[in-house]
Automatic annotation (TrEMBL):
Highest taxon listed in the record's lineage: Eukaryota
Organism: Pinctada imbricata
Molecular function (Gene Ontology), one example: RNA binding
SMART domains per UniProt: VWD (SM00216)
Name listed for the protein in its UniProt record: VWFD domain-containing protein
């Protein structure tokens, strides 16, 4: 595409003028083009030329000339000659006239068997005038040779070489540097095997220092010999030799080890081991170092029925630890007997001796066990048990140490009777330190009985109960006895009688207390459709049947209506409460009709009546619903009636509520609210009516041109408040008028705005008072020229004072009226409430006094009953307190135990003191750096804007007279406007350079890591990959942004690398994939494994999805040394072993929260949601463009996310998945 463009702009200011000439010329299209751009500002020229030629070879050049010292003359060139297996590339940059940077790269590769690379860089920087990097590599089937060399500065050279052979197995690595003491470093290794003799040697040297290691193993010799030797230059470790002789026989093992060192005494160790069976073992191990001898002796012997074991360890100065154990087991004609014991002796004061003995005897009728233990000569445990069995079971436990205790128990089990007893004596020297517990359970002929008793020499507590379940009846009783006297009991009876049409249920519960009996009874019946429920509570049922409260309720159907009755009976106070209710549902037009009467007194005027009715009186397509509600209490003059309706006909909607109520003076008053909407006439009416005021409001809308809206408000049928809004689109005008003063309805407020012509607009606000026009304000706009806009603003100087005075008058008048209305309403409400309150208080005082007296009597009697129960419980508590006197002796190792407890507490505190705030401080420091850089960039941009707005000086005031309400000004328009009806046409291309100087083009900014050349040299030649295309456009498109990117990269390079942020996020949901760069892909997983992502540069990790069928998948993660597998059911395996989700190693850490398993690795994180079958993978930005797989390359380019394993881009997701599958 050829472009030849030139523009000239002039900025004229009185006394000064500036001219800008911009020219642009382009010949050709990508990838072959020549572009030249020039700018002349105030007679100062700037020039940029750029050329790119791509055929078999690639050449490019750029020239920038400006009047600025830092960018006065800059030249750059680039060339590429060759192909992907052999090429030469040159690049140069010249600036500041004499400064020049040159680079040359020669590259040759042949099937990865031969590789030659030479990079030559020349710079004007002192000490780095020329740098040459050389890399050579040659490999064959039996050998590999590699050589690398770097020359820099004044004769500085760094070399490294690697040589390896497979036959014989040899490896040599050599490194040469100019660093003192590290001039030459090398490592050499050799491994050989002749028959069963293995010889290995390793030598490492640095300068004049050398470390040698040799190892010889002879598997043919008997005994087996192993000789190892170390030679080092370190003092004290000059020579070390180790020899091992052993015969490989587990039943008769003999082994000798000898170690010699230049600085340590000769050390010897020997082991002799004879093994026949676990009960017949002899062994001795000896360790000798100089004159120090350490021994360990093990001896097990079997003598008849007795087995003995002896273990002894001895060391310096004759100190030893001895362990002896015995065990014997003998069968007799009547049973089995046995005994055993262990003994331990040490030279330590806190554990000089320990011994324990056990014995047992077992026959057909009993078992006997005993155990005694001594510690440092003191007996700490002495216990004996005896168990007898036959017709009944008996157990006896006798404890002599650490305290005196004896337990005797018996258990009898018969078909219809089960009983048990336990006698506990916690001080055998006294008879009053014992307690007896007895229990019995019997079942016979449908009668079940339970007895439990606890007693000592002074008191007894017992529990007795029975249970019977004859036909259609259940009977249960229970008693609690203290010293064989009942203090509490209950009787419970339940009946369930059913017939074909009748049902009768009843329950009765009686609580027997020391002073009275409490009884609760209830029943439910259903006889021929009539349902009734009754209940009663009596608090002295055995002595006074009038002391009770009873209730009855019934529900009787009557055709389409239903009646309900509830009554409460209190014979002790002579009061009855009755609730009658009747309702009808879905009868004709009646949806619901109900009436409820609440009677709490024999006076009929005190009956509370509630009525409600919902009716559908609709006809045809018209809808109409009515709702009435009434509340009446004649004694207190309460009579409230509410009637409402909702209706709808063709185009009309109406609703209304009417409330009538009776005052204390028996006057009927009402409150009404009505509303109507007529969609055909586009009208709306609403009225609110109360005893004090009536408010009416109506509105009308006209939708044809001109568009009008009228609203009218009428209070107490006086002068209305009218408002009208008019919008005339054809004439381009807007009007508003309203009579704002109710006391003077002819006073009108008006506001008009309109287009006078194509270049003028006017708006005014005025009032009409007594047919006199009063202008309050005026705004007029007139376009004198295409760049001069004249504005006039006028207002009446006394307008604000008039508004203030009128507002004060209206406020004073409204305040007076409001105070009068509030005083009148307050007096009426206060009188009504006081009258109603006195009537209610009088009624409540008369009718509810018996209930208060009744409650007072009940509370008094309950208080007496509670005191009696407390006294009974205190007597039982005395016996229970005697059970708490059992004591124990001090634990022998209490001091050591407390020490361990305190140490554990300190360990927990240390764990809680994890230095978490260190992370927060690091994050804060990073954010501070980002903030400082942002402030600096904003300041630079603001400084560049200071001179842009100088054209505003052309705007000026022509009239400035605020005292008389007049201001006029001429405004300079930076963009020409032919009229005020249309917006000006602005050329985007013409203003682009001007706008670009203020707004950075962030869309053209590549990622910082995009500026790092691709490590795959195949991407250095055409066709360039996405990231290299960005770099070419970036470098040759705008040199200014190159400088900015270099600054950003310098500031944040260490920040990004150190924090290793997770920048790439990909999602695998079932068989749907979202790549790191946001592309959506669907695959057919089937039963196969696919590579999701893999580090193809260093091979640090691979993540694979293994589909096992039905969309379920197993996630496999491999690192350099580990393999992690997460099954569909959440089962976790590491290196083939099942582990818990709290695993951590040097390479990965695994955790689980709720149903999500998280795996952290070096630069990656994987979150697996087990129930939802979703995998979220996050990758560090360090792996930018280093990945491959179904999840893409992580290079901020979506177009290459569907790249196959052979680095070809496809649009077929099935073919893409097949190339990354590992099951073909």
């Amino acid at each position: 595409m050829n472009i030849d463009f030139q523009t000239t702009s002039s900025l004229i200011i009185p006394g000064n003028s500036k001219t800008v000439v911009i020219a642009l010329r382009n010949v050709g299209e990508l990838p072959n083009f020549d572009t030249e751009a020039s700018v002349v500002y105030n007679n100062q020229p700037a020039l940029m030329k750029m050329s790119i030629k791509v055929d078999k070879d690639v050449t490019a050049s750029i020239l920038v000339q400006t009047p600025f010292d830092c960018m006065r003359d800059i030249q750059s060139g680039f060339s590429f000659i060759g192909d992907k297996s052999q090429f030469t590339s040159n690049m140069n940059l010249k600036y500041n006239e004499m400064d020049k940077i040159e680079g040359k790269l020669d590259f040759f590769v042949y099937k990865l068997r031969r590789l030659n690379v030479v990079l030559d860089i020349k710079t004007p920087f002192s000490g780095y005038e020329q740098t040459v990097l050389t890399l050579k590599h040659h490999s064959s089937k039996k050998s590999v040779k590699s050589f690398a060399e770097a020359k820099y500065g004044h004769g500085n050279v760094v070399r490294a070489s690697i040589k390896a052979m497979s036959d014989p197995k040899e490896l040599e690595i050599t490194v040469e540097t100019p660093i003192e003491n590290y001039e030459v470093m090398s490592i050499a290794a050799r491994h050989s095997r002749i028959g069963n003799k293995v010889d290995t040697s390793v030598t490492a040297s640095k300068a004049q220092q050398k470390i040698e290691f040799t190892n010889v193993m002879d598997f043919d010799s008997n005994p087996l010999k192993i000789e190892t030797k170390f030679l080092t230059p370190f003092k004290g470790l000059e020579s070390t030799e180790i020899s091992i002789n052993t015969n490989v026989d587990i039943n008769n093992l003999r082994t000798e080890v000898e170690a010699k060192s230049s600085s340590l005494a000769t050390t010897k160790a020997s082991l002799q081991w004879q093994y026949v069976s676990p009960s017949n073992i002899n062994g001795i191990a000896t360790f000798t170092r100089g004159s120090e001898i350490t021994k360990l002796i093990v001896n097990n012997r079997e003598n008849g029925n007795e087995i003995t074991s002896h273990v002894q360890g001895s060391w310096l100065n004759g100190k030893s630890v001895t362990f002896d154990g015995t065990w014997s087991l003998t069968e007799t004609w009547n049973g089995l007997t046995g005994h055993g014991g262990v003994a331990l002796s040490t030279p330590f004061s806190y554990l000089k001796s320990f011994s324990s003995k056990v014995s047992f005897e077992k026959s057909s009728t009993q078992q006997k066990h005993s155990m005694s233990t001594e510690f440092n000569g003191n007996k700490i445990v002495d216990i004996e048990t005896l168990l007898s069995y036959g017709d009944k079971y008996a157990m006896e436990i006798t404890l002599r140490e650490p305290t005196q205790l004896k337990v005797d128990s018996e258990l009898t089990i018969l078909p219809s009777r089960k009983s048990t007893s336990v006698m506990l004596n916690w001080d055998t020297s006294r008879d009053d330190k014992q307690v007896k517990m007895e229990g019995e359970y019997s079942t016979e002929r449908g009668n079940t009985e339970l007895k439990v008793k606890v007693s000592n020499t002074e008191k007894s507590v017992a529990l007795k109960g029975s249970f019977q379940n004859p036909s259609a009846k259940l009977i249960s009783t229970m008693d609690i006895l203290v010293d064989d006297k009942s203090i509490f009991g209950y009787d419970y009876e339940c009946k369930n009688e059913r017939s074909r049409r009748n049902l009768n249920l009843s329950n009765k519960l009686k609580l027997r207390l020391p002073s009275r009996s409490l009884e609760v009874a209830g029943g439910y019946s259903n006889r021929y459709g009539t349902k009734s429920l009754e209940g009663a509570f009596a608090w002295d049922s055995d002595r006074d049947n009038s002391k009770k409260i009873g209730f009855k309720s019934s529900l009787t159907p009557r055709g389409q209506a239903t009646s309900a009755a509830v009554s409460v009976e209190m014979p002790s106070i002579g009061q009855d409460v009755k609730l009658d209710s009747e309702m009808m549902i879905n009868s004709g037009s009646v949806i619901f009709d109900g009436k409820t009467e609440f009677k709490y007194s024999k006076d009929t005027t005190k009956t509370l009546v509630i009525k409600s009715r919902l009716e559908d009186i609709s006809y045809g397509d018209n809808k109409n619903y009515t709702l009435t509600f009434g509340l009446q209490h004649s004694y207190t003059n309460v009579d409230v009636q509410v009637a409402s309706h909702v209706g709808q006909t063709d185009g009309r909607y109406s609703t209304g509520v009417d409330v009538k109520y009776l005052t204390a003076k028996r006057q009927t008053k009402n409150f009404a609210l009505m509303a109507e909407i007529d969609s055909l006439k586009k009208q709306m009416n609403m009225m609110v009516k109360s005893p004090m005021k009536t408010i009416q409001m109506s509105g009308e809308v006209k939708t044809s041109s001109p568009y009008t809206v009228r609203v009218s408000n009428l209070i107490d049928e006086k002068y209305p408040l009218n408002t009208e809004l008019l919008v005339d689109i054809e004439r381009k005008r807007i009007g508003l008028q309203m009579n704002y003063d109710l006391d003077n309805p002819n006073n009108i407020f008006r506001m008009n705005a309109k287009y006078v012509n194509d270049s003028a607009i006017s708006a005014e606000i005025f009032r009409e008072e007594n047919s006199r026009k009063i202008l309050d304000s005026l705004l007029a706009l007139r376009l004198n020229t295409s760049h001069i806009l004249h504005t006039r603003l006028h207002w009446r100087p006394s307008m604000l004072q008039d508004i203030k005075d009128a507002g004060i008058r209206k406020l004073s008048l409204c305040s007076s009226k409001l105070n009068s209305a509030i005083t009148e309403a307050t007096a009426a409400v206060s009188e009504e409430l006081n009258t109603k309150y006195n009537l209610v208080r009088q009624s409540a005082s008369q009718d509810f006094r018996p209930y208060a007296n009744f409650l007072q009597q009940i509370l008094s009697e309950l208080n007496k009953q509670v005191i009696a129960i407390q006294k009974s419980l205190l007597n039982a508590n005395d016996m229970l307190e005697n059970l708490k006197t059992v004591t124990r002796k001090d634990f022998p190792y209490k001091a050591q135990y407390d020490l361990y407890v305190e140490a554990t507490k300190e360990l927990i505190k240390a764990t809680d003191a994890y230095k978490f705030w260190e992370v927060q401080e690091n994050i804060k420091a990073v954010l501070d750096k980002i903030y400082e850089m942002a402030v600096e960039e904003v300041k630079e941009e603001i400084n560049g804007l200071k001179n842009v707005i100088t054209h505003l000086k052309n705007s000026k005031f022509t009239v400035y007279d605020p005292a008389n309400g007049e201001i006029q000004m001429d405004s300079y328009l930076p963009v020409g406007m032919p009229n005020l009806k249309t917006l000006p046409s602005i050329s985007v291309s013409k203003q682009m350079n001007h706008i670009a100087s203020y707004i950075p083009n962030f869309n053209r900014f590549p990622e910082v890591k995009d500026l790092i050349p691709d490590t795959d040299v195949r991407n250095w030649i055409p066709p360039f990959k996405g990231e290299n295309q960005e770099i070419i456009h970036f470098i040759f498109g705008d040199l200014y942004f190159v400088v900015n990117i270099f600054v950003i990269y310098t500031r944040f390079q260490s920040f990004i690398v150190c924090n290793n942020f997770l920048l790439g996020v990909a999602v695998l949901a079932g068989e749907h994939i979202t790549t790191f760069d946001g592309k959506e892909i669907d695959i057919n997983g089937g039963k196969c494994s696919y590579i999701l992502t893999r580090d193809y540069l260093d091979g640090n990790f691979s993540i694979i999805a293994n589909y096992v069928g039905k969309g379920q998948k197993k996630l496999v993660i491999t690192t350099a040394t580990q393999n992690i597998q997460i099954a569909p059911n959440g089962k976790l395996r590491v290196d083939g072993k099942t582990v818990k989700p709290s695993y951590q190693s040097a390479e990965v850490s695994i955790s689980k929260e709720d149903d999500i398993i998280t795996v952290w690795g070096n630069g990656f994180r994987a979150d697996v949601d087990i129930p939802k079958e979703i995998v979220i993978i996050q990758i560090s930005g360090w792996y930018h463009n280093r990945l491959g797989g179904l999840l893409g390359t992580l290079n901020n380019e979506r177009y290459d996310d569907m790249m196959t394993s052979s680095r070809k881009i496809t649009s077929d997701s099935t073919y893409l998945a097949n190339t990354w599958s590992v099951c073909r």
